[in-house]
């Protein structure tokens, strides 16, 4: 019986603060107790980001809570973690992140069907304040239209 993809944590704020241009799937180098903690859904992607240094991609500010039954093998919950990508993807990201305004933001953390922990990275461009307001107005308008259609079909 094949397993399904299971989401651990999502970064909802990233979709509000950035426009996502591309996404990448990356593995993440973790310790055993960190994986056990992730199985308990104890992670947060708030204010996290990724950088490319010395030909490697690093994930910063991801909080993985210490494992509840762990002992001295627990590591710092906010440590910098290495991401595992193909060399050509890393080269591509080096070129893209040097462009003005582009950054790497983790969008979600999940278990793949094979049971591995993966990170979905987004190549993102920061939104201006008016862009955020426009997105909110568009979302509210869409809700009003949906509500009106629902009322109309129900005959209210």
Considering the chains and any ligands shown, give keywords for the structure.
156 residues; alpha+beta; Small Protein B, Chain: A; seven-stranded antiparallel sheet; 4 helices; 9 strands; globular
**Quantity of strands, as a count:** 9
- Poorly predicted residue ranges: none
Number of helices: 4
- For this structure, the CATH topology is Small Protein B, Chain: A
Radius of gyration: 19 Å
Q: Looking at the structure, what is the overall shape?
A: globular
By CATH, the architecture is named: Beta Barrel
How would you describe this structure to a colleague?
The protein is of the alpha+beta class and 156 residues long. The chain has one domain: Beta Barrel (Small Protein B, Chain: A), CATH 2.40.280. The chain is built from 4 helices and 9 strands, in the order E-H-E-H-E-E-E-E-E-H-E-E-H. It has helices at residues 12-17, 32-39, 87-97, 129-154; strands spanning 6-10, 18-28, 43-44, 49-53, 56-60, 63-64, 81-84, 102-111, 117-126. A 7-stranded antiparallel β-sheet has the order 1-8-9-2-7-5-4. A two-stranded antiparallel sheet has the order 3-6. The mean pLDDT is 85.
Brief rundown of the structure:
By secondary structure, the chain is of the alpha+beta class. It has helices spanning 12-17, 32-39, 87-97, 129-154, and strands at 6-10, 18-28, 43-44, 49-53, 56-60, 63-64, 81-84, 102-111, 117-126.
Topology:
Blueprint (H helix, E strand, L loop, with lengths): L5 E5 L1 H6 E11 L3 H8 L3 E2 L4 E5 L2 E5 L2 E2 L16 E4 L2 H11 L4 E10 L5 E10 L2 H26 L2
Antiparallel strand pairs: 1-8, 2-7, 2-9, 3-6, 4-5, 5-7, 8-9
């Amino acid at each position: 019986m094949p397993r399904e993809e299971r989401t651990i944590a999502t970064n909802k704020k990233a979709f509000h603060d950035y426009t996502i241009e591309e996404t990448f799937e990356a593995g993440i180098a973790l310790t055993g107790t960190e994986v056990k903690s992730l199985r308990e859904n104890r992670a947060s992607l708030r204010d996290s980001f990724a950088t490319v240094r010395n030909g490697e991609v690093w994930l910063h500010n991801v909080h993985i809570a210490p494992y509840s039954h762990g002992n001295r093998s627990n590591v710092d919950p906010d440590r910098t973690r290495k991401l595992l990508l193909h060399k050509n993807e890393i080269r591509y990201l080096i070129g893209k992140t040097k462009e003005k305004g582009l950054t790497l933001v983790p969008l979600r953390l999940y278990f793949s069907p094979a049971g591995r922990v993966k990170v979905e990275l987004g190549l993102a461009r920061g939104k201006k304040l008016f862009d955020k307001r426009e997105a909110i107005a568009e979302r509210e308008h869409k809700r009003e239209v949906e509500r009106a259609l629902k009322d109309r079909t129900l005959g209210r």
